[in-house]
């Protein structure tokens, strides 16, 4: 939300909004989208991590993973992941999460 849009609802000028922000009566925060992990997702992540532990004589250590290729992908969504909120002191920023970003147009870069 922009300061212009914020000033439209109560029908005040943008300078009034800027003054209120400067005095600390309103705060500017951004909120990002977090992945919605189910209990099964968390268990699968833990099983994967435990599966890469090598138990040796006397000590355990992580596998060197010389036969593993890590693929890195970066997606840029058309819908912004960050939203700006103007909140009163003491208010909390809304926690935003999505079950799926499947239907949002995106561009992906892939590297191995």
Largest sheet, in brief, is: 3 strands, mixed
Shape: elongated
Instruction: Kindly state the percentage of residues in helix.
Output: 25-40%
Name the quaternary structure: single chain
Order of helices and strands: HHEHEEEEEE
The structure class reads: alpha+beta
Radius of gyration: 23 Å
Beta content? 25-35%
Task: Give the terminus-to-terminus CA distance.
Answer: 37 Å
Average per-residue pLDDT, rounded, comes to 82
DSSP strand count: 7
- Point out poorly predicted stretches: none
Integer tally of domains: 1
Organism: Phytophthora aleatoria
Protein name: Transposase Tc1-like domain-containing protein
Please explain how this structure is put together:
The structure is a single chain. The chain is α+β, with helices and mostly antiparallel strands and 112 residues long. It has one domain. Helices cover 26% and strands 32% of the residues. A 3-stranded mixed β-sheet has the order 5-1-6, with no helix packed on it. A two-stranded antiparallel sheet has the order 2-3. The longest helix has 13 residues. The mean pLDDT is 82.
Compact description:
The chain is built from 3 helices and 7 strands. With 112 residues, it is an alpha+beta fold.
């Amino acid at each position: 939300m922009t300061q212009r849009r914020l000033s439209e609802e109560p029908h005040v000028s943008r300078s009034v909004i800027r003054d209120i922000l400067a005095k600390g009566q309103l705060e500017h925060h951004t909120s990002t989208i977090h992945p919605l992990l189910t209990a099964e997702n968390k268990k699968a992540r833990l099983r994967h991590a435990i599966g890469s532990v090598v138990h040796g004589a006397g000590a355990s250590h992580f596998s060197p993973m010389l036969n593993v290729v890590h693929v890195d992908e970066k997606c840029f969504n058309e819908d912004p992941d960050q939203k700006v909120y103007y909140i009163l002191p003491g208010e909390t920023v809304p926690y935003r999460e999505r079950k799926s970003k499947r239907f949002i147009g995106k561009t992906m870069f892939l590297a191995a």
